[in-house]
Every structure is written in structure tokens, then in C-alpha cells.
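Quick one: SseB protein N-terminal domain-containing protein from Arthrobacter ginsengisoli, C-alpha cells please.
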Amino acid sequence: MTEQPDHLDLQPLNDLEEKLARGEEPDANPVDVILAFLNNEVYIVSADALEGADSQVEPLVLANSAGKPVLAVFSHPSRVTEQYLAAAPNVLGTQGAAILGNLGDDLGMVINPGAAFGFEIDPEGVANIRRDFKPADEDDDTAGEVGQP
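--- reply ---
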């Protein structure tokens, strides 16, 4: 038997991938997947290297099957294939909540494009998640306020 490339490997590599794998089951709760995404480190790829705390990067944006722009996000660095690294060789980790907080209103997101564990969220879905979920470290007294870094 030949070994699968990492991006097609069916063995979950972290908590987010375990939730993504369970998300395919009939009794799965999509909230578990969303919370795992928001509260775990995820990875984007960029042509720009991160130079410092205040530096800006331009992450890789793909086109989905309808031709709409989607931000490419990965659940683990090994899920980034050579095809994406050729266009954007820097793999940068950040919290899933930070990704959603910085997406514009017209940009969707694809998690693990072309990999075993993945899905796509359209801009409306991103807006719904931003509306319905708050960070785990935000208590009820600060709901609606922007936290300090």
C-alpha cells in the first residue's frame, strides 16, 4: 500500500481536524467545528514574510467553483501543498477567530482546499459566524466590545 500525501491523509493531526472529521457524521454538530476553528491555530500562506508584530501580509486568495474569491486557510502546515507554496511560500499561523475578524464582507474562506478535511464558507456564512460567536476569553460583560490585544 502506498502512503497518502499529507494533505490527503485521513488521520486527524489536531483538534480542529478531529472536529472536521466528525463533522461528516450524520449526528455531528456544526457548532463544534466552528468553535474548534475559532479557538485553534490555523495557517494561511503568503508571498510576504512576517517582518514584525505590526507587519501586514497579503494572504493567498483562491477562486471557488463559482469564480468568487475565498481565502485559503489550512488546519495544519502539512496540509499546504506544493501548488500553494509555489505561489505563497510563507506559512503563517494565527487563531481562527483572528482570520474571521479580519475577513472583508465580500470574501469567503476555504479550509484545506483539495484536502481530506476541509470545507468552504461563503461571505454570508462568515458574517453569520461573526454575529453568532464570540471569543472564548470574552465574558458576558464585554459582549460587543473589542478586546485589547
